[in-house]
Write a structure and sequence with these properties.
Layout (H helix, E strand, L loop, with lengths): L4 H50 L8 H23 L2 H20 L10 H24 L5 H16 L4 H21 L1 H9 L7 H4 L5
Helix pairs in contact: 1-2, 1-3, 2-3, 4-6, 5-6, 6-7
Amino acid sequence: MTVSVQRVVIAAGLGAGTVGALTGVLLLGPLGASLLLAVVFLIVWPLAAVIRQVVDDTPDYSAVTVAALAAAGVLCLPGLVRLVADGAFGVATLLVGAVAFVLIDLVVPARRERPSSRRQRRIRRLTEEQFLEDEALIAALQCPLSISELCDVWVETAGQLAQGADMRDRQAVAEVRRICLDEFERRNPVGFQRWLDAGAPPNPTTYLMAHGE
């Protein structure tokens, strides 16, 4: 069984953090720990929500999750400081918590990977639908267009690329232009070669129509 170093580090960190949080609850008391968690949560939650709205790449974690993790992290601090200050006994306690979580992580079977959010599942579904739409468009383009019409398509797609299309449009345009190239070569190999020898100018009409259909 291959053990990921990253998973071991994360499990050890969670174990030490849990021990620190429990120690923090003992130091502050249930009421004090609850107030600390509530205050930090209420401060971080709106900030995390605002950040999710303004950044270009939306984080995978929700604002509630970020606020809860921040509150738990703040609660860990006094407990970790107290354990470290206790010397060998406190450090040993942290190590026991870290080792325990690592062993639990090794024993519990890993869950199958799944989309981390409903939004990601929806994006994947939309991407698949867009791919099917593109495939249908490309299949429809394989109808018997004339060389003149294919040249017009070539010129039009060149303009789309020059204007800066997004990734999806660029993939579809690239496939359309590949089909045009195949048709150019199949229908008029002589004109196609003349066009290539001339450096493949943006408009291939004059080269392909001379000996075309």
